[in-house]
Design brief:
Elements (H helix, E strand, L loop, with lengths): L1 H34 L6 H19 L3 H30 L3 H22 L15 E4 L2 E4 H23 L1 H11 L1 H6 L4 H26 L10 H11 L4 H21 L2 H18 L14
Antiparallel strand pairs: 1-2
Membrane topology: Multi-pass membrane protein
GO molecular function, one term: L-isoleucine transmembrane transporter activity
Pfam family, one: BPD_transp_2
């Protein structure tokens, strides 16, 4: 009975963190599906959301939902600006995919060090919101903030699913994932479409950033958590949105079970071993399709 309770507790924890990973992983997959590169500057979007939400709550004493909204907006704007300033010139010159990857890595390093130089390297804790409140279900203790994060994340994922499946913008995004040039020839403004994709990716990363800031703390290296989401996206099938969600949930459950029954020190070892195994056995992931010339 005690073992069952422990497993149930860890599964709940895993679903909570997995839903946050999904917000980030979908951004990776969206950008990859259209521009054919892995955007390692995604950590900058997450940091923007985490720090924006933190200072909105501290300086303005605003409500948590308002800070979430502003954090998402800030991250979305940053994502669009990065695309316009750093990536669009590379696209216009027709440079290889490798140039995008190098640029994204440079942006990630720059943004992290910019925060260290301007805000400082120390850890900052969000004001107490709901994270110390627990709901008891039998012998299970569930953080209200974990429930809130999971519910909000799932709500946004459902809204994104509707956007992709049922709207003209979503249809254009799905078409662009097959061939961006053909979509442009059909009269779609591809520059605007790419900006919309980056806006969506930034908004979702900003939302995840604030939830992670509340769950842990805010610090310049918080963006490294996006590496886990990237592994989840690869595991599920990079470029496949449903695969990104599936990979994130499975990764969250795996991390929670390893933490609960082994140790948190072993968690990252298992996660990165999983990445190596996926790349060796099925590089396209659980739901991905093998494609050429993508990095």
């Amino acid at each position: 009975m005690f073992l069952l309770i422990r497993i149930s507790q860890q599964l709940i924890n895993g679903l909570s963190i997995g839903s946050i990973y999904a917000l980030i992983a979908i951004g990776y997959s969206l950008i990859y599906s259209i521009l054919m590169f892995s955007n390692f500057a995604h950590s900058s979007f997450l940091l923007m959301g985490a720090y924006t939400g933190f200072y909105i709550l501290i300086l303005l004493s605003s409500s948590f939902p308002l800070s979430l909204l502003i954090a998402m907006l800030g991250s979305g704007i940053l994502a669009v600006l990065i695309e316009k300033i750093a990536y669009k010139p590379i696209r216009d010159r027709g440079n290889p995919t490798l140039y995008f990857i190098i640029a994204s890595m440079g942006i990630s390093i720059f943004f992290e060090n910019f925060i260290i130089c301007t805000i400082g390297p120390r850890f900052r804790s969000y004001p107490r919101i709901m994270q110390t409140t627990f709901v008891e279900l039998g012998k299970l203790n569930i953080s209200v903030m974990d429930i809130y994060a999971a519910v909000v994340a799932i709500a946004f994922l459902l809204m994104l699913s509707y956007l992709i499946e049922k709207t003209k913008v979503g249809i254009a995004i799905r078409a662009a994932s097959f061939d961006l040039e053909v979509v442009g020839l059909m009269g779609v403004n591809t520059n605007m479409l790419i900006s919309i994709v980056f806006l969506i990716a930034g908004i979702l990363a900003g939302l995840a950033g604030e939830f992670l800031g509340v769950k842990y703390t805010v610090y310049p290296q918080l963006g490294y958590i996006t590496n886990k989401a990237y592994i989840a996206a690869v595991f599920g099938g990079l470029g496949n949105l449903k695969g990104a969600v599936l990979g994130s949930i499975l990764l969250g459950l795996l991390e929670a079970l390893i933490t609960g029954f082994l140790s948190s020190a072993m968690r990252d070892i298992f996660v990165f071993c999983l990445l190596i195994l996926v790349l060796l056995i099925k590089p396209s992931g659980l739901m991905g399709i093998q494609k050429q010339d993508k990095v």
